[in-house]
Structure formats: C-alpha cells, structure tokens
Amino acid sequence: MAILLKNLVRFTESSETEKVDVLIENKHIKEIAPTIEKQTEQIIDCKNNMAFPGFIDVHIHLREPGGEHKETIETGTKAAAKGGFTTVCAMPNTSPVPDNEESVQALFDRINETAVVRVLPYAAITKGLKGEKLSNIRKIADMGVFAFTDDGVGIQTADMMLRAMKEAAACNTPIVAHCEDNSIVYGGVVHQGRVSERMNFPGIPSLSESVQIARDVLLAEAADAHYHVCHVSTKESVRVIRDAKKAGIHVTAEVTPHHLLLNEEAIIEDDTNFKMNPPLRSKEDQEALLTGLIDGTIDFIATDHAPHAETEKALGFIKSPFGIVGLETAFSLLYTHLVKTEKITLKQLVDWLTIKPAQVFDLPYGKIEEKAVADLTIVNLDMESRINKDDFRSKGKNTPFHDWNILSKPVLTISEGKVVYKEDFHD
C-alpha cells in the first residue's frame, strides 16, 4: 500500500526545518521532495506538523504471556503507537520467562500475531530470572532476540554476571542490567532520604544501585562485552558510568522521563503512582541525571513502561508493585518541561528518543530519508491538552502525571509504512 504524506515539516540533522511531501511504498520511504503529485491509496494532509523518525523505546513491559490483566502485546503496542513509538523492546519478566528456545519462539509468534508496532523482545540472562543458572545464551541469541537481561532483579553474584557477559560477547549481543544489590535494599519502597524519614517508609539506598554498576563495568571490561545500564537514578551511578566511559569500557546507559522530571519531594502522601524501582531520588540526583544526559554519560531516554492493574496499585506503598506507565506521555512531558523551559533543545530530545538508541544497539531505524524503513511520528508541537489516564490505550492507568498540562502531542504514527495511530491534527 502506498501512502502520500503532504505538507510535512521535517526536522533535519542541523536542527533546521523544511517543508516536504513524503511518499511511502512497500514499507519504505520511496521519495522525499518539496512537492509530490501522485495518486495513492491514501493521501494524508499533515497540515505543517513536525515529522520525526519513529521513537524507539528499549525498555518496556508488555506483561504477555502471563500478565494479561496488566497489559497485552496488543494493548501495549497500541499505547506505544499513541505515544509515537514505532520500535519497542519488551522485557522478559513474563510467565513463562523467555529463557529457552521454545518460549522465545512462542513469544515471537505472539508478537507477529498481535503487535501493532515493531517489538524486539529480550531474553532472560538466567533461567526463570532466578540468578542461579544461565540461559543458553548462544542458542537464543541466534533466534534474533534484542539482548539479554534479568530486568526487575539484579544479578547478585559477580561470577554469574561475568559468565553471562562472556557468553553474550561471544555472539555480539548486549547484556542489559537492572542494577540492584539486594543485600543493601533493606526492603525499601522509596529512596532512603527525606521522604522515607517523613513518611516512615523503609528506604532504598542509592548505594544499592551504584555499587553494582561499579562491579559490572569492571566485569564488562574483563569480558569485552557491551554492558547497558537500565534506568540510572543516582548521582553516584552517573559518576561511575562517566569514569568507565573515560576508561574505554563499552558501557551505555538510559534514564527515564520520570527520573528526569520528578524527585522524591513529589511524594506527598501514600500514592503508589509514585512507587517505581529505582525510586524517585533526591533533587541532587535528578539534576545529575540531566547533566549526565546532556554531556553524553547517559546515552538516551527509555520509559520503563510498567503497567499494573488498579487493584494491585491500590494496596499502598508497602505492598503494591513497583512501576508506572510511560509510553503515551513521554514525548509530550519531556517537550513541555525540558524543551519549552530551554533546559534541552528539541534536537537533543529527538536524538535521545530515536537516533541514539538506534546507534547504541545498531538498529536500522531512526531515519527519515529515501530507502529507509517508513517509521515516522508526526507531532503537533502547539497542541495544548491535559493528560488523562482514562484516555490511555494501555491497560495500565498507573501514572504520576495524571492531570498534568502538556504543550505537544503525537498525532500520526506510521510503523513500517502502515498508519498505526491517527487523530485530528488541528491547524
């Protein structure tokens, strides 16, 4: 099917803009020109809205199989499409865990049946995410999984992580890590700091994250592996990653929108929409994360979209699960509260949502150019609205950003040449 997009404003590498038409045929961009006159099955007037490469999120939870009451591959990818994401990478904390060839193949089959955007699945580093026995990394890597991770739990022993890194390095596949030393978590549910004291909640020390990153970068150096750190949250973690990069170690890292936009002071009451792991840290940590992102210590942004049923999140801070949703709000929140406040540029934001994750993981996406895969996100940068969790396509409504004002919105998402989300553009 051919699609002709009229009156796009393309954001270029030099941060300039140009008005173009884009012709899409056979899942690829066929032509980009100031004006294209051609009869196609579908012609969409984009009304001078801004076109970006489809956003890429390398850290989301789709919950299927086994957690369909929280999210499914279909609902999660519909949420991704609404947020402008055309490539998402699904974490393996499902039931069954994708830790063998059979379960990985079943996951690929289900993705092919129901996903509305591209899903690149992770496989588990260890059997059942238990940290006790390695999955058959080499055989599973041959099936085309995105990378290996035990996200949700840290690998607790250096021996297990070193062996995993050596196996992954042998097949040129990254190891992606949720960094958390369980021996110093102390049953915490919030950051160990002012809010944990005020609310009398057990706190999670910053050290539980940073100490494991420090261990792992040295292991990655020894194994000659690509080591990627999930959802960095502390200033000490930023310092360790910065030093490791200076030493030439192949370490990369991500940060979430919520850790950039919120800190522990946002927790006023026992509201579990503010419970996530890693937790919201101090204001100093928040500032260090943005600095690290700007100076390149942290490579890009990922949402850690983690949907839960409302009944689960209603159990209070002590008993409810960690995690919030983020796919449908990420761009709009970051644009409104970082770009419009001139803390970052629009080009930086687009790079961190598209170009940098593609570069880090060697993905052939993140481009609006002729012959490229037709993944495009069209955004109305002037649309004012208010976040309403009841309008989410995700099954998860667990967000701390409900009722926040936003100043932009994705209005058209095209994944592999197919319209997967569209709403009224407004001139």
TrEMBL record:
UniProt-annotated binding residues for Zn(2+) 2: 151, 178, 231
Keyword Metal-binding: yes
Domain of life: Bacteria
Chain positions recorded as Zn(2+) 1 binding sites: 59, 61, 151, 304
Binding positions for substrate per the UniProt entry: 61-63, 93, 277, 308, 322-323
Any GO BP: 'de novo' UMP biosynthetic process
Known catalytic reactions: (S)-dihydroorotate + H2O = N-carbamoyl-L-aspartate + H(+)
Recorded GO MF terms: allantoinase activity; dihydroorotase activity; zinc ion binding
Pathway(s) it belongs to: Pyrimidine metabolism; UMP biosynthesis via de novo pathway; (S)-dihydroorotate from bicarbonate: step 3/3
E.C. no: 3.5.2.3
InterPro entries: DHOase (IPR004722), DHOase/Allantoinase_Hydrolase (IPR050138), DHOase_cat (IPR024403), Dihydroorotase_CS (IPR002195), Metal-dep_hydrolase_composite (IPR011059), Metal_Hydrolase (IPR032466)
Keyword Zinc carried by entry: yes
Spans through the membrane: none
Keywords attached to this entry: Hydrolase, Metal-binding, Pyrimidine biosynthesis, Zinc
All copies of domain Dihydroorotase catalytic, residue ranges: 51-237
GO cellular component, one term: cytoplasm
Free-text comment on the cofactor: Binds 2 Zn(2+) ions per subunit.
Active site: 304
Function: Catalyzes the reversible cyclization of carbamoyl aspartate to dihydroorotate.
Family note: Belongs to the metallo-dependent hydrolases superfamily. DHOase family. Class I DHOase subfamily.
Name of the protein in question: Dihydroorotase
Taxonomic lineage of the native organism: Bacteria, Bacillati, Bacillota, Bacilli, Bacillales
Gene from which the chain derives: pyrC
